[in-house]
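Re: beginner question about structure tokens

> Can someone show what the tokenized structure looks like for a real chain? I only ever see the sequence side.

Sure, here's an example I had lying around. Input first:
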Amino acid sequence: MRTNVNIADDARHFAEIYAHANGFTLGDAITELIRKGAQSASGAPEPVKFGRSASGFPTLPSRDRILTTEMVLDALEDEFV
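And the corresponding structure tokens:
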């Protein structure tokens, strides 16, 4: 649906950065941010959207964080202690 809204400049700027960083249109970014805000207000966790690699291996969505070998080893140590 197409509509016009007036939003604060800082909110628009944030939505534009979010859209650009995630490859969304501005409208899609605003929609996602509103839905995330509604979920956090209701306490409902956001479902994880799994992807598939070219070979069919399940992958987690990118969160712009790098998982290092040290992080994996630390987690394994914590699990088995």
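Each token stands for a local structural state, so reading them left to right follows the chain. The two ends are 54 Å apart (CA to CA).
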